[in-house]
């Protein structure tokens, strides 16, 4: 048996301090002694932070404090009114109507949909039941607040109502579109080009976007893109009238006006029998239309048939007798003519190019001849996108066009960060693509969606540029928001009141503050 080599004995400490010298070159890893400090001294940190704090104070803190102080004074800034501006903001020129309207019923339906979506999200595990319960308790309060805002009528309440519509509609639609775009771009080859197109509006300023959409929403189809499309689609399925605005003479003619469900029709003053001929003169035909028409022809009587002529009873530059067909005058073709008996249409006919028409094989009796209202209806000119009922929705559409790319990029980055192992594991366990999306992707993507949503809420509360530029003067009050109301109160008109404008600015700041606090707490929670 062989003896194993002995381990070398540990050197004994000597009393000459050589051991201390041996370890003197090693880095010290012991924590500092009690009362010691890591990092630079406090005065040095303060010195580095002081310039930033001064800039922050001058550009943020001082304006907030000054705005609050200014809101306690009247418009001239000389008389202290304390909180009078805040009470006047909610009480001046206010009328209240609590009855149901289309807007209130729509809000009620939206609240019910949000409640259903909250329950569904809790069921899928996207949110927990405690938060879902808090949301369901808050929804009736939100409904009551919205009902009150819709019931009160004043410029200030209109601004509050529109801001609430913006906060509910714009961020949710943008996040939904951004999510759809982000998911789609993961499955298409030309994803880079698609992202570039969708994100490009972010490079355009609000002013430029407002000018662009002012033209997009123009009422005239010759300029407005949307109305050009709307008119094209409408005229494809429903032919427009050939002679809009054409009418009989106001007096002395054989025709009189008659209101119908389709508009204003023109009927003969006297009833006629089969075998008679009727003359139906009209005026106000546009000169450019007159030049394209064929000469009018007086129809001849026929037994058992009502005949007649529809023509333009006026020719520019020619002398002609009223209510009779003269050689220079033009016939009106494709006019729908009706023979009415007992309040019912007995027969219809369409005039020829020379204006002649005939009702054949009519039973004996008295008939009134009517020119249908559809012959003279004004052409369809599209939708009044910037009218009082659609102006807010139209401006929100422009905002969505600008910010959908922002949401797509952030949500796309969140999707790219999701571990593929989790998705593959769910598929291996037999989950369908829809189940993978709702039960795996959405819970992992929820923090990113919250970031995008809160950021958009803060931006939407401060929206000003688009509303000011896109909304025309006639409907600007209908599209009013708090930021615009603050500007109008402070700087426009002879009664500019910077005290009231400052009070509106403070209210707007208080509305933005909860979202900012939520964002700060979330950042700290993620970093902690």
Level of helix content? 40-55%
Distance between the termini: 62 Å
Our estimate of the beta-strand percent is 5-15%
- Coarse structural class: alpha+beta
Gross morphology is elongated
Roughly how many Å is the radius of gyration? Answer: 38 Å
How many DSSP-defined strands?
Answer: 11
What do these coordinates show?
The chain has 528 residues and is α+β, with helices and mostly antiparallel strands. The protein is built from 16 helices and eleven strands. The chain has a five-stranded antiparallel beta sheet with strand order 3-4-11-8-9, with no helix packed on it. Strands 5, 6, 7 and 10 form a four-stranded mixed beta sheet that branches. Strand 8 (336-341) and strand 9 form a beta hairpin. The longest helix has 31 residues, at 155-185. The protein is elongated, with a radius of gyration of 38 Å. The two termini are 62 Å apart. Mean pLDDT is 84; it is low at 1-11 and 17-29.
Supply database-style keywords:
four-stranded mixed beta sheet; 528 residues; disordered N terminus; alpha+beta; elongated
């Amino acid at each position: 048996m062989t003896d194993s080599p002995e381990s070398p004995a540990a050197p004994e400490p000597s009393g000459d301090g050589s051991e201390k010298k041996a370890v003197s070159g090693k880095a010290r890893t012991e924590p500092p002694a009690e009362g010691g400090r890591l990092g630079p001294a406090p005065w040095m940190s303060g010195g580095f932070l002081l310039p930033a704090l001064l800039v922050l104070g001058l550009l943020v803190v001082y304006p907030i404090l000054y705005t609050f102080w200014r809101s306690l004074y009247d418009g001239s800034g000389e008389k202290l009114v304390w909180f009078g501006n805040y009470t006047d903001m909610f009480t001046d020129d206010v009328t209240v109507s609590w009855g149901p309207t289309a807007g209130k019923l729509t809000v009620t339906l939206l609240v019910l949909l949000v409640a259903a979506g909250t329950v569904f999200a809790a069921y899928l595990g996207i949110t927990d039941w405690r938060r879902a319960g808090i949301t369901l308790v808050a929804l009736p309060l939100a409904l009551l607040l919205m009902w009150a805002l819709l019931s009160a009528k004043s410029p200030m309440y209109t601004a509050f109502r529109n801001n609430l519509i913006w906060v509910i509609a714009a961020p949710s639609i943008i996040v939904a579109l951004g999510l759809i775009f982000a998911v789609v771009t993961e499955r298409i080859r030309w994803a880079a080009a698609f992202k570039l197109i969708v994100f490009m509006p972010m490079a355009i300023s609000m002013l430029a976007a407002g000018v662009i959409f002012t033209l997009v929403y123009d009422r005239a189809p010759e300029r407005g893109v949307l109305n050009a499309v709307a008119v094209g689609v409408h005229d494809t399925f429903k032919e427009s009238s050939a002679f809009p605005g054409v009418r009989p003479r106001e007096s002395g003619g054989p025709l009189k006006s008659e209101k119908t469900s389709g508009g204003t029709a023109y009927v003969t003053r006297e009833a006629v029998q089969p075998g008679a001929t009727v003359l139906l003169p009209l005026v106000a035909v546009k000169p450019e239309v007159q030049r394209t028409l064929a000469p009018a022809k007086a129809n001849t009587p026929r037994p058992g048939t009502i005949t007649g002529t529809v023509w333009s009873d006026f020719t520019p530059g020619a002398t002609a007798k009223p209510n009779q067909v003269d050689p220079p005058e033009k016939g009106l073709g494709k006019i729908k003519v009706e023979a009415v008996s007992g309040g019912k249409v007995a027969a219809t006919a369409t005039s020829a190019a020379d204006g002649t028409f005939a009702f054949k094989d009519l039973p004996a009796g008295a008939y009134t001849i009517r020119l249908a209202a559809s012959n003279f209806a004004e052409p369809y000119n599209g939708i009044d996108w910037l009218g009082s009922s659609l102006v807010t929705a139209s401006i929100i559409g422009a905002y969505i066009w600008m910010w959908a790319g922002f949401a797509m990029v952030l949500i796309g980055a969140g999707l790219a960060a999701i571990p593929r192992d989790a998705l593959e594991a769910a598929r291996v366990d037999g989950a369908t693509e829809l189940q993978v999306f709702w039960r795996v992707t959405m819970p992992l993507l929820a923090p990113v969606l919250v970031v995008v949503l809160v950021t958009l809420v803060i931006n939407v509360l401060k929206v000003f540029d688009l509303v000011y530029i896109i909304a025309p003067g006639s409907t600007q009050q209908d599209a009013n928001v708090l930021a615009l109301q603050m500007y109008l109160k402070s700087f426009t008109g002879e009664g500019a009141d910077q005290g009231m404008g400052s009070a509106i600015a403070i209210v707007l700041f208080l509305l933005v503050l909860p979202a900012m606090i939520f964002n700060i707490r979330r950042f700290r929670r993620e970093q902690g």
